[in-house]
Amino acid sequence: MSRSIMAATAVALSTLVVSPLAGAQALNPARFDDANHIVSGGFGVDGPITADVSYAPIVPFPLLDRRLALPIRFFLPMRPYHGDYGLSTGAQLATIGRHGFGLSGRLDLSLRRESTEVASFTRIGGGLTFLGGYFRERGSVALELGWEPGLATRVSPSDSYKRQTYPGAHSTWMGFGNGFLRAGVQGVVRVAGNTELTLRTGVTRTEQLNRMDLLPFYAMVGINQGF
Question: Which of 46, 87, 109, 135 has CB atoms 3.0–4.6 Å from 30's, for a disulfide?
Fold first, then answer.
């Protein structure tokens, strides 16, 4: 490994904290049969304080005779540095019994851009989430278990770092990265027409079950509008 790559790697290890990559808006899969589109907005704590907007078209999935949500989410982590943002896309489907109890699974792929005083990071991650609970058109409540692994990180040392520490440092990709686990609950309640209020909250841990570098919990409130 060259000195420049070693320097960039050292920057990454010393400044990149473990924080959520993707997250997700809370969707009630019992609504997938009567809504073709769901637009969402949310705000709360998910690592740093975070605001997000998302759009999920609901499409037929004939292979399993189900309706499939395909959410796209843009989120802004509010850190003390400029230029942080993220984008994720995924797929969610569910199986629900006639009494309302069911399971839902979701896959996500995310890209996140973060900046610090010494480097910027482009992080690619995945997400696998399972929900188990009670789902009705008027509302839902479910337990949430999620794994969000880091897949790759591009480290770009800042100009100030190259001027003050190592002029030969350059950008490089690092395979895989810090991932984390989450466990919590999510609830959705239909308040008027096709408008829903949502809540997701729980705890987060690293893949080694250690505490997170930032807050060790998440709590996001939001609103869904179906049409």
Answer: 135
